[in-house]
TrEMBL record:
It comes from Kurthia gibsonii. InterPro entries: MetI-like, MetI-like_sf. It is found in: Cell membrane. It comes from the Bacteria. Its main location: membrane. The chain crosses the membrane at residues 12-33, 61-83, 90-114, 134-158, 197-217, 237-258. This is ABC transporter permease.
Amino acid sequence: MKNKGGVFSLIPYYAWVVLFVVAPILLVLYYSMLDLDGHFTLENYKNFFTSVYFEMTLSSFWYAFLITLFSLLVSYPAAYLITKLKHKQLWLILIIIPSWVNLLLKTYAFIGIFGNKGPINAFLAAIGIGEQQILFTNFSFIFVSVYIFIPFMILPIFNALDKLNPALIDAARDLGASRITTFRRVIIPLTMNGIKAGVQAVFIPALSLFMITRLIAGNKVITLGTAIEQQFLVAQNWGMGSTIAVFLIIVMFIIMFLTGSKEKGETQNGKTK
């Protein structure tokens, strides 16, 4: 009876997966094989491997890499510092709260901040540098993207650092390891699962950004997410838009596989602890 109860309790979970994960992916795959007239074709996949989409794919990966890298460089020291604070849970909540604000509102806020008449340019003019074109640049796009994704990078890294056994760090120091060596040979390896989870949470969404590219970068940054939006809403070519989405889904699974944690390694670490 217990086994039957366990099976029945999983029905809502499997139903959710089928309806909201499997079915949408199959629908996207189906539309990717249709042309503008609704006829079956593989022309969309052939077109995807042209130079235009190849350059767009490289651009998407490059910007996603930069966004993830800068998010990690900011988030790891911040998460490490938070674990050392007295009211660390409070500080963590204060960092996470901005992620609850609507993305569109935050984007428009940065349009005002980086605008020609915004506070940044007002400060630059006050110190004699003069107004600068900050908005609609690669810098503004990466800066705003990093700001938006930082909470998603900090949270898993914080959890990994918070669970770290201080005795391991003390043991490394007692054995003569410097702070840098301890950080590089002990702290980083033991918190690698948190880093991988943060990379997943940032890199995958960064590949498909489109609203920020429109409003902050002024279409000077073209990503696969922008291409999907154009194909669906402008060109009305659902087949090509779905084809790009299929490749994004494939990339997502590849990244999840490469950055996924290994149960065997986790078990061994647990035994070490």
